[in-house]
Amino acid sequence: MDLGMNLELEQKQELIMTPRLKMAIELLQYNNQELAEYLTNQLAENPMLEQEEEQEWETRLEHHYDSYPGQKSAGVSGGRGESFESFTAYQPKLLEHLESQLCEVLAEEEMEVGCCIINNLTEEGLLDISLEEIAGQLQQKVSFVQQVLLKIQKLDPAGIASRNVKEALLIQLESLGVETNLAARIITGYWEKIENISLDQLCSELGAEPQDILTAMQQIKNLQPRPAEAYHSSQRKTHYLSPDMIIRKHQGQYRVELNNSYQPTIHINPRYYEMLRQNSSDETGEYLQDKFKSALWLIKAIENRRMTLVKIGEVLVEKQREFLEKGIRYLKPLSMREVAEAIEMHESTVSRAVRGKYIQTPCGLFTMKFLFASGVGNVASASIKALIVEYISQEESNSPLSDSSLAALLEKNEGLSISRRTIAKYRRSLNIPSSVQRKKWSPG
Predict the structure, then answer these.
(1) How far is it, in rounded angstroms, from Cα 362 to Cα 365?
(2) For 164-203, how does the pLDDT look when each residue is reduced to its tens digit (9 = 90+)?
(3) Which of 62, 167, 331, 435 makes an SS bond possible with 400, Cβ 3.0 to 4.6 Å?
(4) Are residues 350 and 403 in the same domain?
């Protein structure tokens, strides 16, 4: 056996996550308000940066209203699609919220299983079909379905698609990022009888101190046995939203603009730049040189962020033009991979760029992820729901359409092959009662 030491040269490629690369990724993820806060901090810390003088507020306000065709003469609700409702944030249903996240965690070959899983969730957000049933329906291995399920359970809200309350709580514990071993033991062994067991008994059986047990119980108390409720609660909160991107129609063409109304415009401070030129070799010069490089990098990073978002916006306009013209009924399925290929960037870059951002369209204010819709064939799930609402609104009150009838109509009129079970899931997500209940509650 050769135990000698050898010196070898090896050449390999690897990505080094430098502080600046990490910061560039964070800048891409910032929404306009977060970016404005970050730039304000940078202006305070870096003397080489200076904020451009703002216009008088009266001028800016006048310009704002001038930018909307017919706005001055028609008032606030003047032009087509520019009513008050257009500026009210659309709140996606849980199913849409989950669908918009699938492409971030699932490979293309996993999407069919992923869609099947989220289409079989109860109102509480638990999976009400066995993995064996899913595997049988889709002709996949149970182990493959299990693999997809584990990825979905890490989506927002945490614990979604769990098979029971215990599993949901344990997944949420794992996502907390703190020591939760004791809480997990309590859930695993005592969940069914937790209301009837004493603190002394828990201390004795688990070999833990009372204070540790109380801490663990507090962790459990903050969890949500019904994962879907965590999402619904956040949706009920009042949000004051400002769009990060605006799509406007001008002379028959759609224009993509970034909303920079809250963002300070920055440039190099000429006074400190002149000081750098005069003192380039001393200690002051070294300090200013370092700040100058940081300022240049930041200005370039902001411009790269702007260009990336505009490119994504232009692709969205191209792919979702019918939606912009006619509304949600015409939203098309669109993956982040398609957009990434169109702008020649990585899919993860697109995902980061749209995360947490809102887009103002002639149809209303939406999350940017809403425009990345999954669906059936060439029809987005949001469009299918719009069709369901349309058919139900036209049904005869004494003979409402069953889920099977809706599925048949969609296949006959729209060419969409959708199972009765999926129709039922969409209908429930829209808070529409069953045909039996609709008939029971109909007049006469």
Answers:
(1) 8
(2) 888 888 888 887 766 678 888 888 888 888 777 778 888 8
(3) 435
(4) no
Where does a domain end: 324, 350, 373?
A: 373
Q: How many CA atoms lie within 13 A of 354 on its CB side?
A: 27
Exposed/middle/buried for residue 141 (C-beta within 10 Å: 0-12, 13-18, 19+): exposed
C-alpha span between 91 and 366 (Å, rounded): 8
Q: Exposed/middle/buried for 16, CB within 10 Å: 0-12, 13-18, 19+?
A: exposed
Q: Is the pLDDT of residue 409 over 70?
A: yes
The residue written with tokens 């790269």 in the block is 304
Nearest CA-CA partner of 425 in 67, 137, 121, 154: 121
Residue 297: how many other CB atoms lie within 10 Å: 13
Sign of CA dihedral 132, 138, 143, 144: negative
Q: Which residues have C-beta within 8 Å of that of residue 443, sequence separation ≥ 6? A: 397
Domain count, the chain: 3
Q: Is residue 298, in this structure, part of any structural domain at all?
A: yes
State if pTM tops 0.70: no
Give yes or no for residue 431 having a pLDDT over 60.
yes
In order, the DSSP letters of 10-41 are: ---------HHHHHHHHHHH--HHHHHHHHHH
CA 216-222-226 angle, 5° bins:
120
> What is the CB neighbour count within 10 angstroms for residue 42?
16
pLDDT, one tens digit per residue, over 232-290 is 655 544 455 678 999 988 888 899 999 887 778 888 888 888 888 887 677 777 888 88
Amino acid at 281: S
117 Cβ contact partners less than 8 Å away, ≥ 6 residues apart: 127, 134, 145, 148, 149, 152, 161
Which residues of 200-269 form beta strands (DSSP E)? 245-250, 253-258, 266-268
Domain contains 116? yes
Cα 393 to Cα 194: distance, rounded to the nearest angstrom: 47
| Mean pLDDT for the chain overall | 78
Quote the CA–CA distance of 15 and 126 in Å, as a whole number.
39
